[in-house]
Structure formats: C-alpha cells, structure tokens
Amino acid sequence: MKKRRVVIVGALVLVGVVAGVAAAARSAEQGPAALTPGTYSIKATLNAKFEVPKPKGVPAGATGTFTGTLKVLSPLKSTLTWKLTFAHLSGSATAAHVHLGAPGKAGNVVVPLCTPCKSGAHGVRPVNATTAAALIAARAYANVHTNKNPGGEIRANLKAVASGGGGASANPYANVVVNVTPALVAAGKKFSDQYSCEGCHTLTGANSVGPTWKGLAGKTVHLTTGASVKADDPYLMWAIEQPDAQVVAGYSSGIMSTAIGSIPEAQAKAMVAYIKSVK
Q1: pLDDT in tens, 236-254
Q2: Residues 96, 128, 102, CA angle at the centre, nearest 5°?
Q3: Which residue range forms the structural domain that includes residue 194?
Q4: What's the domain count of the chain?
C-alpha cells in the first residue's frame, strides 16, 4: 500500500499537482462547475483490440455496441442513459462498466452498468461532473468482463458529442476557488504525509521525481502542447481529476491515470490549499 501511495502522488507531479483529503473542505469551498447544460450522444463499437491489458482467448467475432445519451442538467448534475449489446464472447459477461481512461490506458470504474450482463442491457445512471467532462473529452471507456478475461474482454473509448446545443468549458473546474485556511492546510498536510507525497515533491525548490511544490501555485506552467497556463485553482483541480488533460512539458502522460481514477473534490481541494501554502 505504501508503494502504491507513492506512485499515485508522484504521478500527480507530472501535471504539476497532487491530491489529498479534507472531508470538511466541501462546505468551505465552491463546487466544481463549468459544464454547460445540454444533450450529448454516444455511440461506440467494442472490440478486443482496444482492451488494456490485452485479453486472452477472445473469439475472432467478439464485438459489442455501446449507445447512450448524456444529459448535462446543471454544472453539477448529469445523467447517462445507456444500452449495451454484445456477441461471441469467450463466455458469459460477468460485468460491464464505464471507466475513466484515455485510449490505451486503464482506469477506475466510475459508472457500473450491469453485473452480470446480458446483451441488450440498458439503464439510466447519474454521473458526476468529473465523469461527464471525461465523456465529453473522450477520456472514458466502456468494457465488458468475462471469467476468462476478468480485466475486460472487449472495450470502446467513448466520446459524447453535443446533439442538443450543449457544450463544455475548456476546464470543468473553471469556477472553483479554494480559500486557504489553517484548517484546510492542516488537512492537506495530514494527507500529504499519509500518501508520502514529499517522497516525490520537495518543499525547498529542488526537483525530485516531480516538480517542487515551492511556489507551484500561481506559477506559469509550460505544457507538452507548447501552450502555457497558470497553475491556479482550476488548473490544479483539473490536473488532479483528469491528469492527462494538461501534461507538463518534460513529463509523460498516463502514469497517474493508470494508478488512480477520480479523487473526491474535497480531497483535491485540501491538497490545493496545502500546495498554495508552500511559498
């Protein structure tokens, strides 16, 4: 567990941030925002060649279809109406889920679909702002699991396309403001210690596995795309929740997204407060 925590927190550095915990933070801060209400359609074909890790013993004709409608009802509330069909698997479908993860990467489950599953399964699920933003950004996928391939046998990355006038801001946390208080900083420090964060980030200005925390908040960050952004509260939050969205130049994508899925907003906010306190 210690090793996993180091990997998780070290990976956050690759986008210039880390995450931690503060259950009391939610009442003190503004919630995430920035998804514009609207309707989005999803249609994708599931195939064994997209699955990560690579499945074994999959029949040549194994395939499936995921169709859905994402309705963003407010900046914080969305629903996903879905239908899943599949055929020619290696055995019965034991489960199906929507996970966070860019193409070629594995990630945590964010929407359980069915357990066990039959072709034609369908339903409606509430989704949070992080999941809705990931669907819109094509950073989520659906897959079907079997006994032979418990990690997943067929998969499709999902892209929610606006079909009813909706849209999303560039950063789904664009309106987040984290107010630095002694209690929130202390909570962030507590969980920094718990996750062994300072094994990967120094507080002195020296780089380690990743960038130093000293002076990170408010700093101009250069990305692999060639763009530059300010490491403000929305940037830090987005990097925690969707670590591959904006990758810092000199670092690699995928490390955090394979180690952890979504982090509760209150936890991320506590760590943002702690990072902002490190001058």
Answers
A1: 877 776 666 677 777 766 6
A2: 55
A3: 2-32+172-277
A4: 2
